[in-house]
Each structure stands twice: as C-alpha cells, then as structure tokens.
Amino acid sequence: MNMMLRSALGGLALSAMALTAQAADIVVGGKNFTEQQLLSAITGQLLSAKGFNVDNRGGMGSAAVRQAMENGQIDVYWEYTGTSLITYNKVEEKLDAQATYDRVKELDAEKGIVWLQPSAANNTYALAMRADDAGKRGIATLSDLAGKVNDGEEITFGSNAEFYARPDGLKPLQEAYGFEFGRAQIKRMDSGLVYQALRDEQVDVGLVFATDGRIPAFGFTVLEDDKGYFPAYALAPVIRAEVLEANPELGDLLDAVSAKLDDDVMAGLNAKVDVDKVSIENVADQFLKENGLI
After folding, report:
1. Structural domains in the chain (count)
2. Burial of 104 from C-beta contacts in 10 A (0-12 / 13-18 / 19+)
3. Which of 180, 195, 222 is the last residue of a domain?
4. Which residue of 31, 106, 178, 217 sits 20 to 30 Å from the alpha carbon of 55, by its own alpha carbon?
5. Window from 7-16, 21-30, 239-248 with minimum mean pLDDT
6. Under a CB-based contact definition with an 8 Å cutoff, are residues 46 and 72 in contact?
7. pLDDT for residue 167
8. Longest dimension (CA), the chain
9. Measured CA angle at 99 (ends 122, 113), to 5 deg
10. What is the chain written as a DSSP string?
11. Are residues 208 and 126 in contact, defined by beta-carbon separation less than 8 angstroms?
C-alpha cells in the first residue's frame, strides 16, 4: 500500500472517529398526553437529524418526569411555567406570565435545571362545556358556574385524577370561586376520556387544556376564568445544566422550536392527532419540515 493511499485511509478513519465522538447521547423525556408526546417526538426527531443519539422516554407522569430530570435520568423535556411554580416549587404567590417564568428560571437553576426560551403557547387548565348547553344554562364564566352549583343545579364535572388532587387543582379552585361539587358530581377519568365524556353528554363540565384541538372540533366553549385563578402555563424546553454546558448548540435548536409555537399552532398539531388520527411521528415530522427545522 503506497503512502498516499495509506494517508487517505487514515484520514477517513480519523474523520469517522471524530464524528462518532461528536454524537452525544441525549435522553428526551415527556409527559403522558398528546401535546407532550408530540413535543417529545418533535424534540427527538430534531436532535436525531442534527446528529445526536436520542433515547426517547416520553409518556411519563408529571411528577415522574420532573424527578427523572432532577435525578439525571433524562436530559431535556418540555414543561409549563405554572406547573413548576406551584407544584414543584410550592410558590403560592400570584404572578403574571413574565414573573412566573423569571421565578421558575431562578428557582430551578438552583437544582441544575435551565429554562430555555418560552413559547407563546399557554396551555393553562380550563373548564369547558358544550357550547349549546352553556348557552342554555347562561354560563359563560367560572363565577356563573359557581352560582349555578350553589343554586342547586345538578352539574357533573369530569376531571383527571391529577387535577383532582394537585395543589393548583380542584379544591383551591372551588375555594377561590366559593362553591363545591358534591362527591357524586365528580367523575374522575383519564384526560383524553374527559373530552369524549363531555362531547357525549356524560358530564356537563370538563377539565381541558387550553391548547387542545378537540375544544373547537367538538364544539366546546371555555369558561372565562374571571377571577384569574389559573396561573400562566407557558410552554418551554427545560434541560439539565451540565448537558447544556457540554452541548451548547442544544439551546439554539430547542429555542428555534419554541419560537414556532403558539396556542393556535399547538391546538392544530394536537387536533391532527386527536381528531384526524394522524400518527404522532408523522405530525412531528411534518411540523419540523414545514418550519425548516430539519
């Protein structure tokens, strides 16, 4: 083998080794509902396209995914500012959207978690009714709902188990608005089943996420939170500080996704999965390509 050929082959081998060394392993987490599964898929596909080795561990409960990040078992996922503020950091002070982001960014930094740029999507909890039923009953706000319950109207409420028990959930909501559903009026079920139960008239009021595409598709109306009970739940990527330090390009990649998201975009993506029955993987791939991200 002549020296020139040997040199060329050696160069190729070194290049291959360098590329292998550059391919960092990133564990992507996510929660167990459509929006989060979409974001896990979007993140995983994007990072894979950019040369990272991705292990996608979506489909976790809210507390489990946060604990996994604090324990170093996952590296990145998408979180909601209000969830971190109230559920993880136990802050009871009422804050506006920017102050909420600033506070969780500061508090979580102490735990080695970095909040990247928030999106314009605010997936706050909300209570919804079938639009025609809400119109007939004269209910447009949560105060209206409280008044009807206090007047003795039989109104059933569909909720997931997490909201029923969480510190920014049903009990303090009822305290804020001065009413209480009777035990028999509350129907606990998986989040996705709430939408079906409300549509099929199995419950009168349902717990929904504001960016869920089934709200317009199923003809629901969201009751106005006229006392401002629910905090801002701005959606943003969060990442372990040591992972970002080792791979600073991750910040720009995830911020670019965040910049493309708002309430309408998120509702549209969610609807493709939940209403049109397109696979999560295909919706994620289409979003990334349409926005020039891959």
Report:
1. 2
2. buried
3. 222
4. 106
5. 7-16
6. no
7. 72
8. 95
9. 80
10. --HHHHHHHHHHHHHHHHHHHH--EEEEEEESSHHHHHHHHHHHHHHHHTT-EEEEEEEE-HHHHHHHHHTTS--EEEEEHHHIIIIIT---S---HHHHHHHHHHHHHTTTEEE----B-B--EEEEEEHHHHHHHT--BHHHHHHHHHTT----EEE-HHHHHSTTSHHHHHHHHT----GGGEEE--HHHHHHHHHTTS-SEEEEETT-THHHHTTEEEPB-TT--SPP-BEEEEEEHHHHHH-THHHHHHHHHHTT-BHHHHHHHHHHHHTS---HHHHHHHHHHHTT--
11. yes
Tokens 């009751």 appear where? 223
Q: Sort 39 into a burial class: Cβ within 10 Å, 0-12 / 13-18 / 19+.
A: buried
Query: Residue 100 pLDDT > 70, yes or no?
Result: yes
The answer on 204 and 61 residing in a single domain is no
What does the block give as tokens for 88? 């993880």
Tokens found for residue 3:
């020296």
Domain with 144 in it: 125-222
- Contact between 61 and 74 under an 8 Å Cβ cutoff? The reply is no
Q: Report, as an integer, the average pLDDT of 251-267.
A: 96
Question: Are residues 108 and 141 located together in one domain of the fold?
Answer: no
What pTM value is reported for the model?
0.78
Tell me the percentage of the chain whose pLDDT exceeds 90.
81
Provide the mean pLDDT of the chain: 91
Same domain, 83 and 137: no
Of 222, 255, 274, the residue that ends a domain is 222
